[in-house]
Amino acid sequence: MQELLLTGRVGAKPELFKTENVSILSFSIADNMVYWNTKGEKQERTVWTKCKMFYNDHEKAVKRQKTIKAGMSVFVKGRPEVETWLKDKKAFGTVVCNVSNIEYL
User: I need a surface site. Which of 16, 25, 26, 105 has the fewest CB within 10 A?
Assistant: First the structure.
């Protein structure tokens, strides 16, 4: 089983979606990556990871949504999933973290 361990800052207030059977809390976290290019120059870039939390109890999802604030530091643990879509007949994909645990730092 694959597992993602991520730390970063929440980008915006989480969005809450309710389906027939489950509530989904969706948010992104940012992490700054520092590296040196082939010329030895320091480079920085921000890497964004979309995260999703699933709840059978909608009220628990609402409570969690209220505790996660934009800009706060978090540690998340979860399983990776690839989301794919088509746009203008081209396929795109991204890795999403299906969060099983979140800690506020």
Answer: 105
